[in-house]
Amino acid sequence: MLRLDDRDILILQVLSREGRLSKAELARRINLSTSPAWERLKRLEAAGVIAGYRAEIELKSVAPHLVIFVTLELERHTPDSFRGFEALVNAYEEVTACWALGGGFDYLMQIVTRDIDSYQDFMERLLSESTGIARYYTYVVTKPVKSAPPPLDTLINPD
Fold first, then answer.
1. Number of separate domains in the chain
2. Span 22-44, average pLDDT
3. Residue 14 is part of a domain; what is its CATH number?
4. pLDDT tens by residue, 73-115
5. How far apart are CA 154 and CA 61, in angstroms?
6. What are 133's strand-pairing partners?
7. Ramachandran region of residue 91, left (φ > 0), alpha (ψ -120 to 50) or beta?
């Protein structure tokens, strides 16, 4: 794990909220000159601390859509069945996130699709792939309540 100082944490906090800043503006926000700020940013990128940049799209402005969470359990709990399921899920663009879980369910998937019919088509395709899904439960998101970057300062400096 890369050791981060207060300026590194500040860079990460600023960029996790506003990823599209100029070098000069980032430097101003963290109270450094441009060159040292840029060097720190490049070091964080090279170390893999910053995995990438992307735009946060307001989907309701672009197209009708549903966000659906699916919890599911596999029939078999073997390394091969987990690998097979994970490889399959990675092939579907409707799956925008997927987490392996400990506890009652094996996976939690986030699905973004046009409507309930396209979700049903997706699930039928997924189930027909011999994925070994024992059962699944669908939860349709009715409205987003909160979406925020992680609390970096609290995670890194818990005291």
1. 2
2. 94
3. 1.10.10.10
4. 999 999 999 999 999 999 999 999 999 999 889 999 999 999 9
5. 34
6. 74
7. alpha
